[in-house]
Design goal:
Blueprint (H helix, E strand, L loop, with lengths): L18 H24 L3 H12 L5 H8 L3 H13 L3 E5 L7 E5 L1 H22 L4 H21 L17 E4 L2 E4 L5
Antiparallel strand pairs: 1-2, 3-4
Helix pairs in contact: 2-3, 2-4, 3-4
Length: about 190
Amino acid sequence: MKPAIPADPSRPLELERFLPYRLSVLANTMSAAIADAYAERFQLSIPEWRVLAVLARAPGLSAAQVAERTAMDKVAVSRAVASLARARRIERNVEESDRRRSHLALTARGLAVYEEVVPWALAYEEAVLRGVPVRSRAKLAALLDDLLARVRTIRTARIEPIPRPAAPSSGAARLNGTRTARTSRG
């Protein structure tokens, strides 16, 4: 299935209105606002917090599975896992049948940090959404779910833009798709 292409191929890209850019700015701004608090209060980076949060809900995942669930770069997940393991907040259990594979789980220390962060994270979310009607929140949640599903669908699709119309050159014109030279007589 070929994704729909905008109807007007000559439309310029207005970065401040481009959805991927706007979502990135929103996510980065929200993460930056909360990152200092995570670091100061809980000695956690954003990637470390995401790893803890995922493992609290789904213990036993591999680092690759955590990366897939969070859509984080594998290197960022690997660094977060190493840091959390050093701090004894998570543990790695090596699979007996394949020593290259390990499963991650929160330790008691990691679970205590997770349980301390959750109320604070939920209060932050509520502060961001304060004043947004419940109905709009539900629409936002549904829209985000729809967008994520759509992006996952087209992620591997080949998207080709419609070519912009070429400006006619001064010495040639197009007539019924064939190039003809302009000549002057006289």
